[in-house]
Amino acid sequence: MCDDSGMTWTVLVVDDHPTFRASARRLLELEGFQVVGEAADGESALRLARELEPGLVLLDVGLPDRSGFEVAEELADARTRVVLISSRAQSDLGRRVRESGALGFISKEQLSGEALLALLDRAA
Amino acid sequence: MRLLRLALGLAGIALGVVAYNVQVDNLGPATTSTRSLAIVAVAWAFLLAGLIAWARRPENWLGPLMTAAGFALLLRQLRYSHDPLAFTVFFALSELSYALVAHSVLAYPSGRVTGRAERALVKAGYASMFLLPLAVLLFYDGSERLRFLDPTPRESLLLVSGNMELALRLQQVFVVFVWGVLATLFIALILRRLARATPRARRILAPLLLAAIVFALRAVPEVVFTFVERPPALLYEYLFWWQIAGFIALPLALLAGMLRSRLARGNVSELVLELDRTPPQGVRDALARTLGDPTLEVAFWLPERREFVDDRGRIVTLPRDGADRAVTRLDHEGEPVAAIVHDATLADEPELLQASGAAARLALENARLHAETRAQLAKVQESRVRIVQAADDERRRIERDLHDGAQQRLVALALQLRSAQRQLGAKADPEVDRLLAEAVDELQVAVEELRELARGVHPAILTEEGLAAALESLTSRTPIAVSLDVSEGRLPAQVEATAYFVACEALANVVKHARASQAAVSARRRDGVLVVEVEDDGVGGAHAEEGSGLRGLADRVEALGGRLLVESPPGRGTRVVGEIPCAS
Q: Does A34 touch chain B (CB under 8 A)?
C-alpha cells in the first residue's frame, strides 16, 4: 500500500473533473506513484478507499454530492492519509482545511510528486 | 311617534300612581308606602330609559322593550287588587315583567337577541312566566295564602278545581324553574358573552354584568326562601333595598351604554378640530380615540394600483367581516378613499363610523397621498434590493464559471506541461526543459491572477463559510497588520456580502492610500443591525463621495436600509462604518 523506504505509494484520486483526474494520474505515475483508482464524488471515494486501501487519497474539496471536508473527516477517522486539493488557494477555504484531519493542502496547479512527498515527510 | 311616546310617558306616570295605591290599599300592614314607592320607581326607571332610548335610536328595539318592561312592572302591582277580574288578569300576567326585563338585557345593545341559546332562553322565559301563574289560578280557591300575597283571600275567575296544595306546589315549581334554572342560565349566558367579547365590546357590554348581579340578587333569595324559613326581617329588608337599587340602575346603565355612540358622536366635532393639527401618520390614532377602538386600523385605497395599503405603503388584505373584526369602506364621489378595519361592535353604529369617516375625509385623503408616496418608496426600495440581489447572483455565477471553466483548464494544462517535463526527463533538450518550466511558472501566475479576480467578483468562502471566515481570509491576505473582531454565525447572504465588500473596499483603500501601519476590522451584531467597521492609523482625508468604490458601497448599504459613514480627519486615520439591518 505505501512505502516509507523506497516502495511505491498507492494513490486514489478524487475529483469531479475528468481532465484533472487524467492529468494528475499521468503526472503522479511519471513521478513514481501508483494511481490505484479514481472517483468523481464523495460516496464513490469512501467506497473505493475501503476497497482499495490506498496509501494516500488525493481529495478535491468541492465534490458534487458532498463537501470534500466531510469526506476527509470520515477518511481520517478510518486512518486513511488524505491530502486536500483545490483550484482555490488555501486562504480561500478558511479553517476547515486544518479541522478536516487531512495531512495538508496543495493547490491543484502546484500538484507534483515532490509536493506530495514533502507533505508526507512532514506528517511522518 | 313622538306623541305616542309622550302619551306612553303620561300613561306610565298615571299607572304608577294607580299601582302605588293598589299595593298600599290592598296589602295593608304587609307593605309600607316607601316600599311601594320603590317598586314604582323601578318601573318608572325602565319606562324613562325605554322612552329616551326609543326617541334617540328609534330603529333599535331596545327602547320599546324597556318601555314595555316598565309598564309590565307597574301592571304587576295590580295583582294585589281584591277585585276578582283585576286580580285574575294581573296575577296571570304579573311575571311577564321579568321576562321583558330579561329580554331587554339579552337584546342589548342592538335591540335584537342574537344566539340560539339566548333566543331559546327568552322563549322559555315568556312561556313559563305566563303559563305557571296561569296554572296557579286554575287551582287557587283562596283557602290558603299564596306566596307574594297577603293572607286576605282573593277570587280567581279561572278556578277550575280548588286545590291549594297543588297551587302552592306550582308556585314552588315556578320559583325553582324560573329563579333557579332560567336565572342561572341567564347569568351564565351573560358571563359567556362577556368572556368571548373583544375589549371594546366588553366595555359596551359592562351593563350586562350589572344585570347578572341584579338577577343573582333576586334569584338566590327566591330559591333559598322557598325551602327554608324566611330570614330575619332586617336581612330581608337589606336584600329588598339592594334589589331595588340594582333594578333602578339596570335600565339606566342599559340606556347609558346604548347612548355611548351618541356621546361618541359628540367627539366627531372634536375630531374635526384635532385632525386640523394632526400629521398624516396620526389620523389612525385620532379615529381610534373618537371611535373608542384602540385596535382600529386604516387602509388607504391606491386607485392606480387598485389595492389597499397601510400608512407605510405596505399592501393590506382586508379581513372578511366576522365575529371580532369588521370593515367599513369610506367613499367620496363614488371612489373609495380608505377602509377602516375595526372591532365588530362598531358595525352596530354605522352612522358614527360614517360621520367620523366624513369628518376625517380630507385628512384621510392627505394620509392616502402620504401612504401612496410611502408605497412608491417601498417599491423603489424593494427594487434596489432586487438589483443588489441580482448583482450578487451574477457575481456568484461568474465566480463559479471562472472556477469550473478557465481555472480548471489552466490547472490541467499546468499538470500536463509538468508531465511532459517528467516524460522527457534527462533526455530533454535543456532549452525545451527551460521553456516548459517557464510555461508552468507562467501558468501558475495566471491561475493565481484568475483566483484574485474571482475573489474580487465574489469570494467562494463567503458563500460557503460565511462572513467570519471570509473576513479572516481577507485580513490574512492584506499586506499590513490587521486585527479582526467578528461575530460568528450566519446572516442573510445579502447582508454578509455587503458587509464583506465594505470591509474589502475599505481595506483596499487603506493599502493603496492611507499609508497606515495597522488596521482593525470588526463586524458585530447590535440590536438587529450588523455594524462593520474598518479603522486605520493612516493619513486620513478620505471622502465617501470621491471615487466610485465607497459611493457604490454606500448605495449598496442604503439599498438594504442601512447607511455608510466615513470619518477621515486629515492626519488622524480613517474610520469606515457600515450599518446594515439584519433581521436574523
A: no
**Considering the domain boundaries, does residue A3 fall inside one?**
no
Per-residue CA distances from B160 to B108, B135, B137, B167, B363 (Å): 40, 10, 8, 12, 74
Where residue A33 sits, what CATH number does that domain have? Answer: 3.40.50.2300
On the question of pLDDT at A43 being above 90, the answer is yes
Q: Containing domain of residue B546, as a range?
A: 466-584
**How high is the mean pLDDT of chain A?**
89
CATH of the domain at B39: 1.20.1070
Tell me what ipTM this predicted complex has: 0.88
Q: Which residues of A fall within a CB distance of 8 Å from B436?
A: none
**The predicted structure's pLDDT at residue A1:** 46
Q: Residue B24: helix, strand or coil by DSSP?
A: helix
Q: What is the pLDDT of residue B232?
A: 65
The amino acid occupying position B524 is R
Could you tell me the three cell numbers for A3? 512505502
Instruction: Give the mutation candidate from B422, B496, B504 for the A interface (greatest A CB count, under 10 A).
Output: B422
* Total number of domains in chain B: 4
CA torsion through residues B448, B449, B450, B456, sign: positive
Torsion of CA B388, B394, B399, B404, to 10 degrees: 160
| Placement of cell 477555504 in the chain | A93
The runs of H, that is alpha helices, within B302-360 are 350-359
- How many other CB atoms are found less than 10 A from the CB of residue B397? 12
**pTM, entire model:** 0.52
Write out residues in chain B with pLDDT < 70, as ranges. Answer: 28-31, 229-234, 261-267, 544-548, 584
Q: Do B115 and B149 sit in the same domain of this protein?
A: yes
B41 lies in some domain: yes
Q: Kindly state whether residue A60 falls inside one of the protein's structural domains.
A: yes
Q: What's the pLDDT at B548?
A: 59
> If you average pLDDT over residues A55-83, what whole number do you get?
91
pLDDT at A70: 92
Between A and B, how many CB-CB pairs are < 8 A?
71
